Each structure stands twice: as C-alpha cells, then as structure tokens.
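Bumping with the actual sequence this time:
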Amino acid sequence: MVGEAMATAIVQARLGSTRLPGKVLKELVGRPLLWHVFDKLKYSKKIQRIILATTTSVQDDQLEDFAQKNGISCFRGEEEDVLARFYGAAKHYKCTGIIIRVSSDEPLIDPNIVDRVIDAHLAQSNDYTSIGVANGFPLGLDTEAFNFAVLERAFNEASLAHEREHVTPYIYQHPDIFKIGSIEAEGKLKRPELRLTVDTEEDLRLIREIYASLYHPGRVFCTEDVIDLIDKRPELAAINAHIKQKELGQ
C-alpha cells in the first residue's frame, strides 16, 4: 500500500464526445469548462499535481494549447484505448503513488470529497476507492483513487473492449484480485437523483445557472452549496432531469 497522502489527479479529456462535441471548452462564466475542473482540483489538500490526458487526434491540438496556456502538464495518447492513454500519462509523469481519476465533464467536482476518497483509500489500505451515484452521491462528482501498481496491472491484463475504452472496469470488476473500497454519501450529500455532469446542452444550461449563482474567483464552493441552491430553486433540477446517462460515462 502506498504510504503517502499526496496524490496525482489525471483528468481525461477529448473534444470528440458524441452528445455534446467540444463540451470541455464550452464557455462557463468567462472560462472554458475544463479550466474550472482544474481550478476546483487545486483546492484539494491532498493532490500534489494535476495532469491532462488527451488524444493524439488533430482536433485535440486545442486541448494541448489550452494546457500550455494555463501551465498544465499534458500527455497525448490513444483515442479509443483510454486505459493505455491514462497509463501512458501516469508513466510519463512518473506517478508512482496514488492516482485520482476525474472526468473532464465534471466542473462541480468537489475537492473536499476528493480528499475524503484519498483519506479512505489510505486508511483502508485499498487498491481502489471510489464514490458515485451507487454510493448515494449526485452524478457528476465521480472520483476514483487507485495505486500506480494497480493501474499498471490493469493496463497489462485488461483485454475486453470496455476495459480498454474505460480506465477502471478491470479493477472494480475484479474484487477477487483487488481490494475495493468506497465512501457513502451521508446527510445532505445523499442526492443520487441530481444530475450535475455535463453531457448535453441541458446539462450545460444547469451548470451555467449554478456557476452564475455560486462562482466567485479565488473562492471554492462545495456540493452542499449546490444542493442548497437547487433546494431553493427546484426549477433548476428540472432543466436536465429527463436526461438518461450513458452506461459507462464518456
């Protein structure tokens, strides 16, 4: 088990998403949506560095440009084999400790919850620790923690298409091999019906409304603030309540 508390976050992103192409560079209170994902993660007390993992596709040159302009470490790898891309980023930047996987379409990622996942991962000596809708959290806060050695084993052993197209199925679908853990949503955070990710125009409308109300440069707002806002303005949740999530994310 990794004995250090600091971690590396790797954010995977591409511009070729099917439902809302180019979504990660859509404007959100004057900045690209992706910028806000990185900005949120900077408030984590446990993340030491953040890396962008994108593809070698020409259209993703824009994402490399974004990274350069914002001083973000960037790795480019395979488009369809996302596991290989993710592993390549971790290996290139010598991420030997805990790795945090975050999607680029989650501008409401909560650094406090990310830190809780890291703490649980260490305290339980897990190989893989996560949260998600299945744990009672709103959709759009998904956080996965795993050790580099676990990622490397998945890269070497995963053979099914869905195991390569997504980073972690080989890990969490093999509790016989890996020690799997999670944290459960409690109290106000237990709202699995809320959709706080960005996959459609309706999702983007909701996120823009939330940011217009809660975002202030240099300050972080958390999931409790978002839930308080939605409870005061229930019409917000109705904006994307009809959207069905794809099976395994982007």
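The tokens above came from a reply further down the thread. The mean pLDDT is 93.
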